[in-house]
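#onboarding

Welcome to the new folks! Below is a worked example of what a typical request in this channel looks like: someone posts a single protein sequence, and someone else replies with the predicted structure as tokens. Don't worry about understanding the tokens yet, we'll cover that in week two.

Example request:
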Amino acid sequence: MKALLRPFLLGAVLAVFFAGAASAEIPGIVWDWAPECYGWEPGYANHMSQAGAVLTIVGKVDRFFDPFLDLDPVATEYTFIFRDLVSLGSINLGGIIITNYAGGYFEMYKDPSNNADFGTNPPSVVSPATFVDGALVLNGELSSFFVQMFQGPGGWSGTYTVDVELTGPVGGEIYDRTGPCSGTSGGGWSDQAPTIPLGYTVKVDGHMNIDECHGTGTENATWGSVKTLFR
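Example response:
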């Protein structure tokens, strides 16, 4: 009986083994957003963030990259939110303004209703509500959110970076394809863009990059250890 079961068991184990190994090959830019992504925080003025102010950013994915090329952000809306980012206060270094934010969470939702609406003067009836009313497909914890603003000939512009630890949810369409991964998000940061809706304080043009996938327990097994199961 053991001999008869070996081919079946070997096939099942190999499927799990190589599926786990495949998830480790994801790292790289996986999606981006532009031009529809804006944020707000109370008390923001003259490029300066007030200590204790909470930053919220909402937006829509406009393009997926490998291994998510099968996802169509035009036919089905994929919205996201960066929330609960607490400002540590801006520092003006003379021509450069830096701001660090503590904590924060990232969430992505899939919504076939395509109803995301920035509206004006958030938080409002439509924002962030219409960005978080779909099915939760990915979430994670944020750390080291950092903004730099530079004064140039055309005014002020800047960049942001943040570390992201993807944590769930199990059953989420995207998380089930990534598993637990570490990544970064970064891109352009502008508080003077003419397209910023009334009441928002910043336009964010960014992307998500997966740097390393931690995998599951199945990935920690070596091929040698797998073979010993069938001796």
